[in-house]
Amino acid sequence: MASGYPANSFGRLGVACSQTITEEPFSPETSSLAGNFDTTESINSFHLPGELGDGNTVGKSKSKSGYGYNRAELGSLLAAEDDKLPPELDEDLDGVDTSLLNVPSKCAQQAEEFVKKVWAAGWNVAHHHTLPDWLKDNDFLLRGHRVPTNSFIACFKSIFRIHTETGNIWTHLLGMIAFLGIAAYFLTRPSIEIQWQEKAVFSAFFMGAILCLGFSWVFHTVYCHSERVGRFFNKLDYCGIALLTIGSFVPWLYYSFYCRLEPKVTYLALIFFLGTIAIVVSMWDKFAQPQYRPLRAGVFVALGLSGVIPAMHYVITDGFWHAINYAALGWLVLMALLYIVGAVIYAVRIPERIFPGKFDIWFQSHQIFHVFVLAAAFVHYHGISEIANYRLTLGDCIARGEVE
Ligand SMILES: [Zn+2]
């Protein structure tokens, strides 16, 4: 807000300054202001015309720039708004000697800043009901949605703005960076510390985690590009979950059945088979539709829970306490619980289902699910590190007479 002006003097300012504004279309690239949902609220409370406040302008735009109104159009909109001022106030403002302002450039600058704020805040986020069907994924998130951009640049710029996907993007973007760091550290250890076999086996897990988190944040970033792009990256997102599950099983099965070739190969083949089925199902176009949310949660929980079979095998052959102490069973159960609780939250969409519109930006179910997936991946890394450490301190299978 401009200092020294009445709170609602922007309408007046818009009229006074609109003459100095050229026809050149306004470009968001020139805006230094990040989109801010709160600002939208303040602008809406400023009684702007609906077209400005509802954030749906991109869809309606006829301007060449593709970004909605040019400055002259904005000037006339603001003038129209000014006409709505109460007559007393209007007179009051008319009575002000504009020469007193004596700062036409400042006036133009403030008007431009206001326009930028309108652009930055109102034109990038929209109410759920204004979205096209393919962007209406969650009916309980009411405001702060991005509108279709048809531009990868605009999508990637939105990473630094506040909207319904900001939390989803950053939870898995930061998670991916963390796993890239861990993987780089692990794989660059000298072979005297970590041998190539360990690096190869752990790489399956690192690849799964990095691809899953990578596909996820990229999907959430470009989801609003267009229906076609959103759908394609949505499938990659689901594939990523299957890849993380397969990648998580590899080191676990490798070290749990270290000297037992037959169960090791059988269970590895089983998880590759089930993981492939999950990927094939993910490629089905209807799989991403909102009504299949419980089915999606079910497919991936079932894929993860297939681990119960090798876990039971281990408990039967080696005993429960051995499984807890030497096969990180406790950590694996914790990981499974995190995935399952995350998937249930994802499927039932709590808390936004209970308080629609209250979790539009932060703490919505999908963000909670993302955090649970991340936590589960870290727990799993810890678990497989423990199993590997234990197994490697035991020494060679042949020397111990453990080969089947
Ligand atoms: Zn997600």
UniProtKB/TrEMBL annotation:
Q: Where does Zn(2+) bind?
A: 220, 366, 370
Q: Which UniProt keywords apply?
A: Membrane, Metal-binding, Transmembrane, Transmembrane helix, Zinc
Q: Which InterPro entries does this UniProt record tie to the protein? A: AdipoR/HlyIII-related
Task: Output the superkingdom of the source species.
Answer: Eukaryota
Q: Which residues form a coiled coil?
A: none
How does the protein associate with the membrane? Answer: Multi-pass membrane protein
Gene Ontology BP, a term? adiponectin-activated signaling pathway
* Membrane-spanning segments: 169-188, 200-224, 236-255, 267-285, 297-316, 328-348, 368-384
Subcellular location field: Membrane
Presence of the UniProt keyword Magnesium in the record: no
Its Gene Ontology cellular component terms are: plasma membrane
For molecular function, the Gene Ontology terms on record are:
metal ion binding; signaling receptor activity
User: Per the record, a Pfam family?
Assistant: HlyIII
Q: Which family does it belong to?
A: Belongs to the ADIPOR family.
Database matches in PANTHER family: ADIPONECTIN RECEPTOR PROTEIN, ADIPOR/PROGESTIN RECEPTOR-RELATED
Report the protein name in the record: Adiponectin receptor protein
Source taxonomy lineage? Eukaryota, Metazoa, Spiralia, Lophotrochozoa, Mollusca
